[in-house]
Every structure is written in C-alpha cells, then in structure tokens.
Specification:
Blueprint: E1 2-19, E2 22-39, E3 45-51, H1 52-65
Antiparallel strand pairs: 1-2, 2-3
C-alpha cells in the first residue's frame, strides 16, 4: 500500500494503542470502517474498504506516514 489516503471513515471509537516506536499505550480515536485510496505494487490506483482490527492498523500506519507517533 503506497501513498495511502483515508477518503472515508465511519463509526468512531475511543481506544488505546501501543507502538514499537514508544513504550506504553496512549489514547486515540479510531474508526471501525474506513475507505482508503492507495497505489499498489504496480503503481495502479486502488480504493478499498477495511473494517475492524485491519482498519485500526491501517489508520495507525497512515498516522506514521503523516509524522504522527501514537
């Protein structure tokens, strides 16, 4: 997933996350369902929907791309 961008999100919830970059956990808001536009390994544009834990992980990693460390 290259150059991911969240283009839609639904069902916000409060959670705590840890990160390998920092010790401990921190509170954050995530969304249970997201839609992401990105480029695949062949640089083709894709749009996909994700939910649950997969959506949470993708949001965490997109934050890293934006310089946000949770």
């Amino acid at each position: 997933m290259y150059n991911p961008k969240l283009i839609a999100q639904a069902e916000p919830f409060e959670t705590e996350e840890g990160c390998l970059s920092l010790t401990g956990t921190r509170p954050t808001t995530r969304y249970r369902r997201i839609t992401v536009r990105y480029q695949d390994e062949s640089w083709r544009e894709r749009t996909e929907r994700f939910s649950g834990y997969t959506a949470e992980i993708i949001q965490h990693e997109i934050d890293h791309c934006a310089g946000i460390v949770i």
